[in-house]
Specification:
There is one protein chain. With 178 residues, the protein is of the alpha+beta class. It has two domains: 27 residues; 146 residues, Protein Transport Mog1p, Chain A. 28% of the residues lie in helices and 44% in strands. The strands form two sheets. Strands 3-4-5-9-8-7-6 form a seven-stranded antiparallel sheet, sandwiched between helices. A three-stranded antiparallel sheet has the order 1-2-10. A hairpin with a 2-residue loop joins strand 3 and strand 4. The longest helix is centred in the first third of the chain and has 17 residues. It is globular, with a radius of gyration of 17 Å.
């Protein structure tokens, strides 16, 4: 407990000395953990808003849980996850499930141009990484299928892509806690 208090005081001193959260070293920023989501990530030191909703899909109603941190009016950090019925995942292919997730993002955001599309992995789980433009919105997403759970990690910014150091912090600290 004493160590936590000292860490908080040190962080406050650094914040006031630097005058900006952007200058705080990554090692003292707080990791956000979702027990139900079975992940942790650095939302740039912030705590996201959490919401759930049912979304109609070709597979029926799917509940998606979203974690949203709006850094400003023009920049947001998002993590979403949803669980597919196990029978659907077993009957389909990982590539098709990821492509379907990507298509959902692309259609809902109106992405018309891609600057990056590549396969990635996280702890041996297959994923996709893509960047694209929807009018003035620039999006960058990573998706992973872990068992029957699809994780979507995204950054959105109006006018240009989110800076690489912020993307690296957000995507690079995402880890599964199962």
């Amino acid at each position: 407990m004493k160590l936590q208090i000292i860490t908080c005081i040190t962080a406050l001193i650094i914040f006031s000395a630097c005058g900006s959260v952007d200058n705080v070293p990554a090692e003292i920023e707080v990791m956000y953990e979702s027990e139900d989501g079975r992940f942790k990530v650095n939302f740039l030191g912030a705590t996201p808003e959490v919401s759930s909703q049912s979304v109609p899909t070709e597979l029926g109603e799917i509940e998606i849980t979203m974690f949203l941190y709006e850094k400003s009016l023009t920049e947001a950090y998002i993590i979403g996850y949803n669980d597919y019925p196990s029978a659907i995942v077993e009957a389909g292919s990982t590539a098709d499930m990821l492509a379907g997730g990507k298509e959902g993002v692309v259609n809902s955001m109106g992405v018309t141009h891609f600057d990056l599309e590549e396969e990635v992995s996280l702890d041996g789980n297959s994923g996709l990484h893509f960047k694209g433009v929807a009018e003035t919105m620039h999006i960058e997403y990573q998706m992973y299928l872990v068992g029957n759970r699809l994780y979507q990690i995204g950054v959105i910014r109006d006018g240009s892509y989110v800076t690489q150091d912020r993307v690296d912090t957000f995507f690079g600290t995402f880890e599964l806690t199962d």
